Amino acid sequence: EIPPSSHYRLQRYPGLFNTTTSDEFLQSKMRSIFSGSQTALELFDILDHYSKNCDMVVGNKKLLHALKKEKFDLLLVDPNEMCGFVIAHLLGIKYAVFSTGLWYPAEVGAPAPLA
Q1: How far is CA 11 from CA 4, 35, 63, 66, in A?
Q2: What is the model's pTM?
Q3: Which of 26, 39, 60, 88 could form a disulfide with 95 if both were Cys (CB 3.0 to 4.6 A apart)?
């Protein structure tokens, strides 16, 4: 959980996942991948969940309008969640990619956190 601070304002928006459901979903997929039982259908299920989650934000015109009014200078983007790049484009703002420290950086040979 992110602690409150006078230096930033934290606002959460509804999506397909919350912390618990996201962790459970990804852990089950990771078990399938590393056990060798991952099927193509399960892989598409992961992409389908991410797409639906992205659609909930991108399809919410009221939310996008409110975010645009904030006039953000920068959007931090998780490379494992591709929607961040789309949102940055729709809002017309620059983005910076950060590493979550998950298995993805190890697969591409990048240190985690990035140096």
Answers
A1: 11, 37, 11, 12
A2: 0.65
A3: 88
